[in-house]
Amino acid sequence: MWSLHEVDIVSQPMIRIEGLTKSYGTAQALRGVSFEVPRGQVVGFLGPNGAGKSTTMKILAGFVTPTSGVAQVNGIDVSVDPVATRRLIGYLPENNPLYEEMMVRDYLDFIADVRGVPKSQRQTRIRSAVERCGLGSVLGKDIQQLSKGYRQRVGLAQAILHDPDLLILDEPTTGLDPNQIVEIRNLIKDLGREKTVILSTHILSEVQSTCGRVLIISEGKVVADDAPERLTTSEGGSVTVVLASRSGVPLRPEQVRAVLEQVPGVTGVEGAEAEGGDTLGFSLRYGAEDIRRALFDAAVRNDLCLLEMKRRHVSLEETFRKLTGGEAARSGTPARAEPEATPYAA
């Protein structure tokens, strides 16, 4: 049986952010960001450069102090007790600072010491991190000798050495080749089975294959929060059709276009490739409502034969661009670089 205290801890969201703001002089990086992340969820944190992603993650990790608002990890306020919250967090910043002159083995032993891993558990923890991150073949090498992919693996290993409840990963696949991206992505998915993970990345396919939830931030505000598949379906898409006459009377493009434009939910009609002969092709844009049933009914009423119908959802990239597009152009000034941070404070 769990105690009431244990039940209360389990019911706490791993991350709670409410009304978070951060200003660098006159530049406002965060403008009232609020969200919660329950235990065991893998969240993709998206936004254009300068939108406030890294600032939010650094506040969670205790390396940047918010101007106002609340940031909690497992119910602990980061601003009140940053040391306690850091013990719960594994952090891989975008620049992945490493001591390149150290051997991988020595570096991990050093990080375990800094993180306060008990000596009796240290070798077990290091061995586990090495196995999970695939570092066995490079333990005796200096970090400066490693490829970018292996350096990222070392960064992930240091982030999980102390068995944290929460992993904060800022652009973990930046600069990797396609094979390395797949390897790191699989590792993150594996870690996500037992940890809460918040993942910032510009690779949207990575989010779709790894994350169960997407947060999109733009100009310091959360503009979307949902599952990847719901984000794309809610934004609509297009249906491509190939039509023929059921009666044998040649189709007149302008008349068929007029019929299609009257289908409920259709927001635009354009010509598309047909199959030749007496067929016509069209591409129909639609919003959140699925138009396929209404389209079929309209074809029947107007003596049209639907030879082909293909639906295409709006992609996550298109949704992202719609929600964040034109940010730099509207501001007229380049985004302020966010201060660097090091992940080694215990």
What does this structure look like?
The two termini are 33 Å apart. The chain folds into two domains: 4-232, Rossmann fold, CATH 3.40.50; 236-313, Alpha-Beta Plaits, CATH 3.30.70. By secondary structure, the chain is of the alpha/beta class. The strands form three sheets. A six-stranded mixed sheet has the order 6-7-8-3-9-10, sandwiched between helices. Mean pLDDT is 86; it is low at 1-9 and 326-346. The radius of gyration is 26 Å and the shape is elongated. Helix 4 crosses helix 5 and helix 5 packs antiparallel against helix 6. The chain contains 13 helices and 14 strands. The protein has helices at residues 4-11, 53-61, 82-87, 104-114, 119-133, 148-160, 178-191, 204-210, 228-233, 253-261, 292-301, 316-324, 327-331; strands at 15-24, 27-37, 42-46, 68-73, 76-77, 89-92, 166-170, 196-200, 213-218, 221-226, 237-245, 266-272, 280-286, 304-313. It holds the Pfam family ABC_tran. One of its GO terms (molecular function) is ATP hydrolysis activity. Keywords: ATP-binding, Nucleotide-binding, Transport. Residues 325-346 are annotated as: Disordered.
Shape summary: elongated
CA(first)-CA(last) distance: 33 Å
Radius of gyration: 26 Å
Indicate the CATH topology of the largest domain. Answer: Rossmann fold
Oligomer: single chain
What portion of residues is helical? 25-40%
Reading the helices and strands in chain order gives: HEEEHEEHEHHHEHEHEEHEHEEHEHH
The major sheet is characterized as: 6 strands, mixed
Structural class estimated from helices and strands: alpha/beta
What is the strand content? 25-35%
The strand order across the widest sheet is 6-7-8-3-9-10
User: Mean pLDDT across all residues, rounded?
Assistant: 86
| Count of discrete domains | 2
CATH superfamily of the largest domain: P-loop containing nucleotide triphosphate hydrolases
Q: What is the number of strand segments?
A: 14
- The name of the CATH architecture of the largest domain is 3-Layer(aba) Sandwich
CATH class membership of the largest domain: Alpha Beta
Question: Which stretches of 5+ consecutive residues score pLDDT under 50?
Answer: 1-9, 326-346
Contiguous helical run count: 13
